[in-house]
Design brief:
The chain is of the alpha/beta class. It contains 7 helices and 11 strands. Helix 4 links the parallel strand 2 and strand 3.
Length: 246
C-alpha cells in the first residue's frame, strides 16, 4: 500500500467539500498582513494543484511542490483556461525542498504538515523554508490538531461518487493517526478496480511547532482558528499558523 498512488485520480471528486475558493480568500487576507507585497508563492505539498491554479488565476506566480508523482500529474493536467504565468511544478519531499531562488510567501495547506511523521522532518522542512522565503516573507500553514486526530480513533468513513467508492478506517496510537483506505474505481470497461492505501498523520502541539519555527529563524508567529481572523479556540480541529522569515 502506498500513499496517493491510486487516490490521486479520485482525490478531487472525493474532496468536493473543501471550499478551496474560500480558503484562497482567507490566504489572501493573511498575505495582506505580511510585511511585503506577495507576488511569488510556493505551494508546498500542492497535491492535485487546485489551490495552485486558483492563486495563479488571481495573479500570483506559483511554484508547486509535491512528493507524489501521481498527484503532480493530476495537477499539471489542470492547465488550460487559467490566465497568468503557468506554475512551475517540482517533485520533491518537504524536508528536501530545493528551489532556484526565493519566494515572497509559502503556503502548506490542508494539514499536509501532519504527514511528516518524524519530528525531525518537520524541523528540517522549516529550515528549508527559511532558506527559500525572502526576508520579511510569510509562511502560512494549517494542521489537524492532536485532539482531532485522537478523536478519529476507531472511526469508519465512507465517501462515494458515481465512479468511486472509498471506505476508510482510522486508528490512533502513540501520537500517530493511521488511515486504512479501500478504494474502488470504475474502469472504462465497467469493471471495478480495488486498491488499498495507507496514510499516516502525526499530531503536533502549537508549542512544539512554535519552538521549531523560532529555531529555524521565523518570528511573529501567530495562530488562528480554521479560516478565522481570531485565535483558535480550545475545541478547534484545524489551526492556521502564520510567521515571518527574519
Amino acid at each position: 500500500m502506498s500513499c496517493y498512488s491510486s487516490l490521486a485520480r479520485a482525490y478531487d471528486d472525493l474532496t468536493g467539500d473543501v471550499a478551496y475558493e474560500k480558503r484562497a480568500d482567507y490566504l489572501e487576507k493573511l498575505f495582506g498582513r505580511s510585511h511585503i507585497t506577495v507576488h511569488t508563492v510556493l505551494d508546498l505539498a500542492c497535491g492535485t494543484g487546485t489551490m495552485t491554479w486558483l492563486l495563479t488565476g488571481r495573479g500570483y506566480e506559483m511554484i508547486a511542490v509535491d512528493g507524489s508523482e501521481e498527484m503532480l500529474a493530476a495537477a499539471m493536467e489542470k492547465s488550460g483556461s487559467v490566465e497568468g504565468v503557468a506554475p512551475v511544478f517540482l517533485h520533491q519531499s518537504m524536508p528536501k525542498l530545493d528551489l532556484y531562488g526565493t519566494v515572497d510567501a509559502a503556503i502548506c495547506c490542508l494539514d499536509s504538515l501532519n504527514y511528516l511523521i518524524a519530528p525531525g522532518d518537520v524541523q528540517r522542512t522549516f529550515e528549508r523554508l527559511h532558506l527559500f522565503i525572502a526576508p520579511g516573507g510569510v509562511l502560512i500553514f494549517d494542521i489537524n490538531t492532536v485532539a482531532k486526530l485522537q478523536a478519529l480513533d476507531g472511526q469508519v468513513f465512507l465517501d462515494e461518487t458515481e465512479d468511486t467508492y472509498c471506505v476508510w478506517r482510522t486508528e490512533y496510537s502513540r501520537g500517530v493517526c493511521t488511515y486504512y483506505m479501500d478504494l474502488f474505481c470504475e474502469r472504462p470497461d465497467g469493471a471495478w478496480e480495488r486498491s488499498l492505501e495507507l496514510h499516516r498523520q502525526r499530531g503536533y502541539t502549537v508549542e512544539e511547532l512554535k519552538r521549531w519555527l523560532e529555531q529555524a529563524g521565523f518570528g511573529e508567529i501567530r495562530t488562528y482558528g480554521d479560516m478565522k481572523m481570531r485565535a483558535p479556540k480550545e475545541e478547534e480541529q484545524r489551526i492556521y499558523f502564520t510567521c515571518v522569515r527574519k
